[in-house]
Amino acid sequence: MKKITALLCAALLLLTLALSGCGGKGNDPAVDGQPSGPSQDQQEPAPAPGEGESGVKDIAATYQIDAAPLGMPLQVYLIIQEDGSFQLTNRLEGGDDKGSGQVGRSGDTYMLLYSDSTAEASKTSTFTVSGKQLVFSTKLYYGSSSFAPNEEDPQNPIYPTAKAMAYTEYLGDYAGVLEETVEAMGATLTYACTLTLGYGAEYSFESLYSVMGSDQVFTHAGTFEIDGGKITLTAEGGEATEGTISADKTIDIQSLVSAQGSEKKDLTLKPATTSEQAGTYTGIKNMEMGPMVMTSNATLKLDRLGGYTYLAQMEGEEDYAEQGTFTVDGTKLTFQSDAEGAEAVEGVLENRTLTCKFRISNDVPMATEIVFYADDIQGQFTAAPSEEADGYAGALTLNGDGTYAIAVTKDGTETYAEAGTFEAAASQMGLSLLLTSENGGTVSGVVSENAININHAVDAAGTEVGFQYKK
Question: What percentage of the chain exceeds 90 in pLDDT?
């Protein structure tokens, strides 16, 4: 304990000298993980550990840090105790110590003062508090590595953010449907609404609807608070809306549901039962009919309340469509069409890949097995040139028949192209994507919520570069 205290004092002394040095440049961005200092006439003393228990007691909590927006598909945890001590870990139970020490505070500025910090090598991470979130303006040290602010877009930097695991019994998706008759259009619009309550007391709202055959999406986001049976949503613009949340977690609240509307609508939202499976899945089925090959493009949409719609399209033929409900039992999904006399069919959903039998034509009553891929591993992805990628840009296409294509360019000239097949699999880092090229070579990457991170060749010599592909 004496050693830790001595190290913290040494760190504080070093920080005091750094913050009180001459020739300051105001609130310039932090450099190389060190906190940015105020200008000379705005100087504040370096944060002191705890400033007494009350100094950090109000932020004592368990936080989750999602590093995916920073380019690392990793989720870790920060635990701050009421006595001001902290620990970073990879798991809440039985996790490794990835950094520990004391929390210091000076006014509205906080700092993690690591126990292995020394006067010769100061190790700190500075943050401010925003509601139930801690926003780090400098590197956040984690084990032998660190999470640094993502400044790919200098106008909109992304900072490491720790989100409090608050209101945990209420977190998740809440879904509901609103039907509205629009007399001016002579039509009834159906809004599929989803309210998501997440870590850091953040919420996001999404309304999906169709106008004259054109799919529309309306969203808003902000923070929420729950007090007994009352829930309050505060939009990013600052407007607060109160609603109720009952014992069975049904939420009754008002919200705008479209960009065109100016009047909030009454919504009843219930806990979503199939959020984990919900999404759009696409597949391509090629069937040989003698000398002919029939190709069907299939789209399966699963909603958050156990409903589904299916559409199969073949050139020169009328589209085949059906809808119904589905249930989940582990990885097994059972689909029941609304069509009279239809029999239930079973499929398997693993690693964002669904295998199930559906019809592909009105003229063919027999169902055929189709492999569907979730939206986050389907379509066109691009990686912009960056220093990490040595100036190379990439384009990755994942097709509904399980094939892929890669094209790499530098300064507008193509330097490498590759094609092959792909599959998704579970890994220690989460969902992985395995690419097998036509010549038999393989590479694998990690699929996160925001991107696909993968290293692959950029030239004929086999030079590999890391890319972060986004839609």
Answer: 72
3-state SS assignment for residue 41:
helix
> 284 Cβ partners below 8 Å, 6+ apart?
295, 296, 297, 298, 399, 400, 401
Mean pLDDT of the chain: 87
**Residue 3 confidence class, pLDDT cut points 50, 70, 90:** very low
Distance CA 35, CA 106 (A): 13
> Would you state the structure tokens that stand for residue 376, as one six-digit string?
């986050």
Identity of residue 3: K
Provide the pLDDT confidence category of residue 73 given band limits of 50, 70 and 90: confident
Query: Measured between alpha carbons, how far is 161 from 127 in angstroms, rounded to an integer?
Result: 9
Is 327 in contact with 334 (CB distance < 8 Å)?
yes
Contacts of 150 (CB under 8 A, 6+ apart): 69, 70, 71, 157, 158, 159
Count CB atoms within 10 A of the CB of residue 413. 7
Q: Determine the Cα–Cα distance for residues 231 and 198; give it in Å rounded to an integer.
A: 14
In this structure, the number of other CB atoms found within 10 A of the CB of residue 456 comes to 22
Distance, in Å, from the CA atom of 328 to the CA atom of 347, rounded to the nearest integer, reads 10
- Measure the CA–CA gap between 201 and 164, rounded to whole angstroms: 7
The predicted-structure confidence for 293-337, as pLDDT tens digits, reads as follows: 789 999 999 999 999 999 999 988 999 999 999 999 999 999 999
Give the separation between CA 308 and CA 136, rounded to whole angstroms. 42
Phi, psi of 305 (to 5 degrees): -120, 20
Which domains are delineated in the chain?
Answer: 2-165 (2.40.128), 169-271 (2.40.128.300), 279-376 (2.40.128.490), 379-469 (2.40.128.300)
Question: What's the rounded Cα separation, in Å, for the pair 345 and 135?
Answer: 48
Q: What is d(CA 194, CA 175) in angstroms, rounded to the nearest whole number?
A: 4
Backbone angles phi, psi at 7, to 5 degrees: -65, -40
**pLDDT in the model for residue 238:** 76
Whether this prediction's pTM lies above 0.85 is answered by no
Q: Phi and psi dihedrals of 338, rounded to 5?
A: -75, -15
